[in-house]
């Protein structure tokens, strides 16, 4: 009936285990090469930026190009400290989990710059809608580590009463919206929150967070549609760490295009940025937040980074990627890169780094110790089971009172 | 007091609420300029401006998800889903997000919001304009589920829902929008103006969530009903002459079990009616509760009269709809002396 | 705290009631102006086509440019007939609905070219996943009108046993997938069907259909993601008739961009086409189907047209758009345009048109009459209520047998 | 016969089915190269190629929607949802599409497909890795809902599900993947190899959908259970020494009501247990049916032992989980002479 050859299904090939980079190097622009448009630029004029990579720090740790800002050394030292503290925190929590003090943990190793630098440009009152890999948002604002560990341990001092899996923090005061566990749902919520801010003629902005894999979820589209229609003050962050558990970003549709490009069809300006470059993250975040604050509407940013650690403590990446894939740090270690920059500027030294690392380790260990005093998942003081029936509704309905009694409380 | 249709009562509830509290915003598909395909939001955009009453993209997930974000911010969004049959794309946001936000944050974040949706059959709407998905909400901890049967309750309950600090699913039996339909589809349509409960005050009042009401006192059998089926049950009682006590549940979750138990202990017989499919419908929960709490008072098993376990058909509207005939048969069976 | 002015919510303005066109004329290219790329073009090379408009027929009815194909007059006369028959069908069904013979109807007035020309390039075995406004797909393949009317009347001969609302046809044999009633769901199903065809090394292709308003639905995104990842043989049709009930296309995110542009972020080639131009529709459909058939993957096409009629028989557009908005036929009547072309080529005449119109009206009236013989929604023979319990499952389970008995069957 | 874990049994079912019928395709998040986060599809991509076993984007709606399209084409897709808690974005495609396709086309199009999903608690998974949403499926006409309690049934039922011409929701109690967990979480873990029903033939066999089985005969009380709760019920019977008859429902829809009625008529008492929240859980349907059909045999009300009506908590796993203690108490109460 037809002259055509049989069809066949295209299934994206996986990054070769030999190629440790596993990042599409064809789209890596050199530091300083990408222009910095005006904040009120017409989105159609920067379509090309979705296919490039904003980078500020070059191989020698020098800041390059239009995105390089004149930043005080103190600001950068704070950034370095935030990232190092985040990593120290991850390491300590991994240890607690291995010791059986809690059920689960997720690291953000290699991605510290994204959350830490982004947080540094927000104001009090702004609201993040994070995923489970943005602990840096809390740490960069010096949120009490004890409070975080309490949540990890589901102990008696856990502000969310042991109700959520570890890492699913919530802290309204910190502008940190509750992490759901269901992927993608928070993306449209952030847009809704930002719409509310606009409806109320407020000045606060929202930040939505999502992973590369989760951009496939429905709510990613819902968020972009609503952001496109109502132009609320929201920053739409896509953290492309190349992996979604075992699935490379090609399975989410990133095989021959970028996640930044997704924004084009919605007339939302977008940028693709080196997420391991603290200076680039900070500069672009500032740009996007200013856009939002000036009522210029949403911005989508793809942060290109790499998930160095396993997906979670339940994961074994050796089953699906080369054992040394993570060791290669395709875009470099964000901590090392900022450190090199500070040293190059004469504002830091290796010794101070070693010292700071020890100090932070101490600080986190002390916080963890303090938190353990409030109990752990399986031991010590914990929330009374009676609390399980609270907060389902504002006022406990009769059937829950009956059930609580049935349980003996 | 003016007589209002259910549509007018619902509109008035939103109007009153928007007037009193500028944190109340109303949106949904065709809700803004046009005022909704059932005209429940007519005039609100004109009165309160396009930032407080606006059209939404055709994305139920987006509508509910945006409402969750607005509620977390501190607004009181009232979102309309054009038909309950179309709520499924927004179901994740309702179940995984709105319903659980207070619990999973120990009250740090909350989702005081209302999701309104027309439900139920009787309009030849076929499978996608006739569904009654209430049981899909009552199974979800953290949601309140409300369904009025008349204009007075509709306004009072909707104001309560908007003022409630928890997410409320507000189901509107669309066959009741313009009149108190009792299932006698072959008889002339009755307008609300002929019904006492269409007397709706202009201003603010509330009907409490969580309280059922006895619509018709009786001693022979208790009928548990809500929405359109309240009127059908009344017709069935009148048609059969059976001295049925008819309870209009009004709120399914939290359930007013006291009113139910009191009645069943009196009558010793119970018939549950709803339009939704039978298996795992809300009638199952009612039957399970009644037999557990009133076991030693029951003289007969609790019966369920429901929609059949099929998708809602088009041509067989009246064979599917649990009308006064089927309810009447159940009343007769429930009260028969064996 | 902040130097910024208060935010405000952007709510898209509505097309002015004075501007009858209600189509963004800035994006209307002249006939013949848009190039015809090779079918294996790299999607990134035709991004500009998403912002233009492929048109073949100019104001004088002449075919212009690279998309103009040498078509036999018979082929075009068939096209004209298909469109005229579709319109005659709509008119007759409206009458039946007003007479109370059925509950509901939806016209496609003004959009006839899209479905009719598209169908003309498909082969037997291909599968459409239509919306409720593609009755032209059936009519253009000369599907028996009686069969269609039987469905509209939910009568005893209705092949889907009166189960669905009128216009929700289903006809596997005609490559016409069941219309759901839930918007958008069929878009990803079409992609799944096309994936299956590729998995089986078949040569059949699928066509997905959606309206402008419904592109906001989640499944639109799901479809584009899956189409992007697996590159199955599917044509993703977006019928932009400017309205979704009372909402202009701006509420779906079309205010400052096009629906064709949505495809860019997924690396799917896309085109924006004058949907009221039978020749343009046919040419672009052919191009896209060839791509699919050659295993080159998906194509997204935005058909720009105008919903001349009310949304449905339940709708009253005078409440939300200028009374004469539809009368202006912003892109012209597709029937008139093709007729003018045929007349210009000397292959048709006004008289033949008048005659054909009468003939078609007769034909449809006769079919409607025949269908009425099988009953109508409220009168005459209809499916036994016992059939209501069939086809819920392949074999009727016990509880449905019990329920059927309870109903007395 | 080899002893298999539940994971191995499930994998074997897909392997056997793919081998016998090249229309069977398997996909889902992390399902292809990696073999699934629970390793249920390990090795299948290698054996059958990437067009028959592949990774899917993280879009549950896309996964189910694509499966509907594939099934309509003529394939037999087996889609995995990584956790039942994540099925909600795909719920619309399940409810509005897969479930209704046969009905709304009078059989012209059908959706022979399986949606597998790990469900249930007991693994400290918190609210998004512990849910039991079976009642959200049983309420939907057109779906079959299956939930095995052991490797033998898991393989036989999954093969039946794949060969079934209707859409089947296949719930896999994840706490049973590696051993027959009976709720005594403080005792050493028991591997499947110690359990008779881990003897799983290599090749093709089926366990019929729609048939319950009596796991333990008894005369004092009937326990209706499924999934993990079958083992918990056994433990409760052993712990209390009550002569309970335990029925493993295996299929919730269509329900094997005969087996249930036969048992309750014998024992006169009935306890229903499930992990899902109580209100509108499947236990409500069971209680409603049992009281309706066995009213005159019942000596006590049907009792429900279920998860509480709260989101699934993390730290209170064992206070939430309806373990042998709570089930035991219900058995004692159900069999007590008043
Ligand atoms: C709705 C939903 N589906 C599936 C999952 C299971 N899941 C948890 S994390 C994950 C991968 C997410 O990848 P990505 O979005 O790239 O984020 P990353 O883990 O790389 O930070 C998956 C599939 C989930 N949590 N929610
Ligand atoms: C999921 C869902 N939500 C809402 C509706 C109600 N509805 C039916 S048609 C329609 C408008 C669709 O507009 P568009 O997609 O532009 O198609 P058109 O009617 O213009 O052909 C709406 C909102 C529906 N059928 N399904
Ligand atoms: Mg990732
Ligand atoms: Mg439209």
Automatic annotation (TrEMBL), chains A, C:
Domain of life: Bacteria
Catalytic activity: N(6)-[(R)-lipoyl]-L-lysyl-[protein] + 3-methyl-2-oxobutanoate + H(+) = N(6)-[(R)-S(8)-2-methylpropanoyldihydrolipoyl]-L-lysyl-[protein] + CO2
Keyword Thylakoid: no
Keywords on record: Oxidoreductase, Thiamine pyrophosphate
Region (Disordered) location: 1-25
CDD domains noted in UniProt: TPP_E1_PDC_ADC_BCADC
Listed Polar residues bias regions: 16-25
Cofactor(s) the protein needs: thiamine diphosphate
Record family assignment: Belongs to the BCKDHA family.
PANTHER family assigned to the protein according to its UniProt record, in alphabetical order: 2-OXOISOVALERATE DEHYDROGENASE SUBUNIT ALPHA, MITOCHONDRIAL
Functional description taken from the UniProt entry: The branched-chain alpha-keto dehydrogenase complex catalyzes the overall conversion of alpha-keto acids to acyl-CoA and CO(2). It contains multiple copies of three enzymatic components: branched-chain alpha-keto acid decarboxylase (E1), lipoamide acyltransferase (E2) and lipoamide dehydrogenase (E3).
Protein name per its UniProtKB record: 2-oxoisovalerate dehydrogenase subunit alpha
TrEMBL record, chains B, D:
SMART domains with a match to the protein in the record: Transket_pyr
Cofactor: thiamine diphosphate
Segments traversing the membrane: none
Keywords carried by this UniProt record: Oxidoreductase
CDD domains: TPP_PYR_E1-PDHc-beta_like
One Pfam family matching this protein: Transketolase_C
Highest rank taxon of the organism: Bacteria
Keyword check for Oxidoreductase: yes
Span of domain Transketolase-like pyrimidine-binding: 4-179
Enzyme nomenclature, EC number: 1.2.4.4
InterPro entries noted in UniProt: THDP-binding (IPR029061), Transketo_C/PFOR_II (IPR009014), Transketolase-like_Pyr-bd (IPR005475), Transketolase_C (IPR033248)
Coiled coil: none
Enzyme class: oxidoreductase
Keyword Metal-binding: no
Annotated PANTHER family: 2-OXOISOVALERATE DEHYDROGENASE SUBUNIT BETA, MITOCHONDRIAL, 2-OXOISOVALERATE DEHYDROGENASE SUBUNIT BETA-RELATED
Protein name: 3-methyl-2-oxobutanoate dehydrogenase (2-methylpropanoyl-transferring)
Species whose genome carries this gene: Tianweitania aestuarii
